[in-house]
Each structure stands twice: as C-alpha cells, then as structure tokens.
Design brief:
There is one protein chain. It is built from seven helices and no strands. By secondary structure, it is mostly helical. The N and C termini lie far apart (about 50 Å).
Length: about 100
C-alpha cells in the first residue's frame, strides 16, 4: 500500500491537482468571507505545504508537477503585462493609488 501511495505522490499529475485544488479552496474561502487576509494564493501555499508535510511527500516529487505549473507562469505574466499596457492611460490617471498600493 505504501508503494502505491509513493507512486501516486511521485506523479506530476498529483502535484498539479493538489495545487489547483488548494487554490480552489482558497478562492472559495475568499469569496465566502470576503476577508483580504484569506488571499487564495496564500491559502493555497499554506494548504500545499501542510499536505506535503503531513503526507511526508519528498519535495522532488512535488517539484515534478510544480515545474509544469512554472512553465505556464511566463506566458501568463506576459498576458498580464499586455493587459496592463493596454490600460496605460488609466494607470497614469491613478498613479498615486497605484504607487501607494
């Protein structure tokens, strides 16, 4: 049984599912409470760390799926930058709140 669980944990699919599920829980909590402290990304990080620690999953196993997630971050960042660039006039009008934030 232990070998079966180790095989599941070592799959990149497990890490991707764990990350997405943890973010979904964080998103749900944020929507339910409306508290800024319950940021979906913060909740997801905490949940993933807890699961890794409780189940004694080696970081190398989790990183196999984490590397796949990281691969999608660069294009997502580029899309966000293009979206912000298209709204440059709004940013210029609200420079003080943007810089203060």
């Amino acid at each position: 049984m232990n070998e079966f669980l180790q095989e599941i944990y070592s799959s990149p699919f497990f890490a991707i599912c764990l990350s997405v599920l943890a973010y979904a829980v964080g998103y749900w909590l944020n929507r339910k409470t409306g508290l800024p402290l319950l940021n979906p990304l913060l909740i997801a990080i905490i949940l993933v760390v807890l699961v890794i620690q409780i189940l004694h999953i080696p970081m190398e196993s989790y990183n196999q799926g984490g590397d796949i997630i990281s691969m999608f971050l660069a294009p997502a960042t580029a899309v966000l930058a293009v979206s912000i660039y298209r709204q440059l006039d709004i940013l210029k009008k609200n420079i003080v709140p943007v810089v203060a934030g």
